[in-house]
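hey
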């Protein structure tokens, strides 16, 4: 059958207004990842959770988001992405109120877990809807850059917002920020955001959902446990369970006519390479964010709010890259843009290997700013390549997979680079603990810099300086490993992705569709999903 090319109109004021609305829950999701960093002490004083309950209060949100992303991405493709977004907004706002007024640790853990599930409905919905609203590839790339910036901005604002809220209200007040965001979304989304659902809704395979959860959750748990306790038996067992169910999940998807995740997407070289860049790139960012935050507080002695404010300039670098990279990629191939910005990140990691324990704030923030510059570019262009490589009806599952990879990358970064830095610290400090030190003090001081700071008053004068030098050595080694990984990404982006043409040049997805591809219409009275 012959096909004629039909160009879809560029986005107008309605679409850009819709992007602003979609950015609100994206900022909120990023903020919710880090907002409890400062609230935990006052929360612990009020609810008195046990040590394990504290960990679950912090981790249950991330666990459930990672576990349900793929399921919710595909569910949005089936029932409607805007519908799922609005359902998730109602759920997120409601459960946030429950979390804010929790009167026990158990209630807060359950609320945080429910927030994770609700958050998993929001993340892929926002990104997939952007891919529908912005048919023109140039505009879509820029919109995804704004989306990526929104999430990073939320993460950067989390500690600052948490500190401000704690200064004026109680620890639960930070959760209530979700309520006005949910209300705005419920009012504005039906007006500004078009609905989209896949044209051919197949059967939703519940067994695939179970297999995906039993594959992802044990792996995420193993990664987080490894970061805290090292390579012990429960960590190995959880990883083995996750890998086993992952194999079963992939096999089942290959045999289904309507899979939860279309594994054939991985046969696309651009799709797989972009996912790899996102995964490994986020490993470096996750580890460096953890270690630099600790360095600012425990080595440089900055209070948490001030340390959070110092992270503002690097976050600005990411904003500039996430917005600027899609614009540059209109004239320079995306693979080259990603390789060039990752090369700057490589320089940043090299600078971080030179940080010392005495007055290294300027060097540290310069290096981290360059690291964030590369993050902004790969978050915008890498995500765009992943979503653009998938057909429109698979945009939800492709978006979910992109976000799952990034969540896993952050967790792996904390686990691998954090554990490496801790191992260096322990090896350096082991011979420096004075003889006769009480065992509980020696154990705390020899375990981590946090323990050394808390035990400093019971140690000889000047000993804490040695602990700070050992922790800084751990940072230097971890950043050396991140630099090597980033060098690999520079080569991967420049070589494997070199075939991708400049944005909007007519190669690949150009924002056009053929007349043989029928537009997907909404229910009567709703706007066409294709925007034609």
């Amino acid at each position: 059958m012959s096909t004629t090319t039909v160009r879809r109109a560029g986005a107008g004021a309605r679409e850009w207004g819709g992007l602003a609305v979609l950015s609100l829950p994206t900022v909120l999701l990023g903020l919710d990842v880090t907002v409890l960093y400062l609230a935990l002490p006052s929360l612990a004083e009020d609810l008195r959770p046990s040590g394990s309950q504290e960990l679950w209060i912090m981790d249950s949100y991330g666990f459930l988001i990672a576990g349900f992303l793929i399921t919710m991405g595909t569910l949005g493709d089936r029932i409607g992405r805007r519908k799922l977004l609005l359902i998730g907004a109602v759920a997120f706002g409601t459960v946030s109120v429950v979390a804010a007024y929790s009167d026990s640790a158990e209630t807060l853990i359950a609320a945080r877990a429910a927030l994770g599930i609700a958050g998993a409905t929001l993340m892929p919905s926002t990104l997939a809807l952007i891919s529908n609203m912005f048919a023109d590839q140039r505009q879509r790339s820029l919109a995804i850059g704004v989306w990526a910036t929104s999430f990073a901005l939320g993460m950067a604002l989390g500690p600052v917002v948490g500190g401000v809220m704690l200064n004026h209200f109680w620890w639960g007040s930070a959760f209530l920020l979700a309520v006005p965001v949910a209300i705005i979304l419920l009012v504005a989304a039906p007006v500004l955001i078009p609905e989209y659902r896949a044209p051919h809704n197949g059967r939703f395979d519940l067994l695939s959902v179970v297999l995906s959860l039993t594959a992802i959750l044990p792996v995420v748990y193993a990664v987080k446990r490894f970061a805290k306790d090292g390579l012990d038996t429960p960590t190995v067992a959880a990883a083995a369970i996750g890998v086993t169910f992952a194999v079963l999940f992939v096999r089942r998807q290959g045999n289904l006519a309507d899979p939860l995740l279309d594994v054939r997407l991985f046969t696309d070289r651009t799709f797989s390479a972009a996912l790899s860049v996102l995964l490994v790139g986020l490993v470096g960012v996750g580890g460096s964010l953890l270690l630099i935050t600790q360095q600012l507080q425990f080595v440089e002695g900055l209070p948490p709010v001030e340390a959070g404010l110092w992270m503002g300039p690097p976050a600005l670098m990411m904003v500039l890259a996430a917005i600027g990279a899609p614009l540059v990629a209109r004239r320079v191939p995306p693979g080259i843009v990603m390789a060039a910005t990752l090369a700057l990140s490589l320089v940043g990691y090299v600078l971080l290997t030179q940080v010392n324990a005495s007055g290294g704030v300027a060097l540290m923030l310069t290096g981290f700013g360059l690291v964030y510059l590369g993050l902004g570019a790969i978050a915008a262009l890498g995500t765009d390549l992943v979503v653009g490589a998938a057909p429109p009806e698979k945009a939800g599952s492709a978006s979910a997979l992109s976000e799952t990879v990034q969540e896993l990358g952050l967790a792996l970064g904390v686990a691998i680079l954090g554990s490496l830095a801790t191992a260096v610290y322990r090896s350096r400090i082991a011979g420096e603990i004075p003889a006769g030190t009480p065992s509980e003090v020696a154990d705390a001081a020899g375990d981590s810099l946090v323990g050394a700071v808390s035990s400093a008053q019971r140690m000889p004068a000047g000993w804490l300086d040695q602990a700070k030098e050992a922790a800084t050595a751990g940072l230097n080694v971890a950043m050396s490993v991140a630099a090597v990984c980033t060098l690999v990404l520079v080569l991967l982006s420049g070589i494997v992705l070199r075939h991708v043409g400049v944005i909007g040049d007519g190669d690949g997805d150009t924002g056009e569709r053929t007349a043989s591809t029928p537009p997907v219409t909404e229910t009567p009275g709703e706007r066409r999903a294709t925007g034609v």
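Confidence is low (pLDDT under 50) at residues 1-7, 507-532. The CA atoms of residues 26 and 151 lie 5 Å apart.
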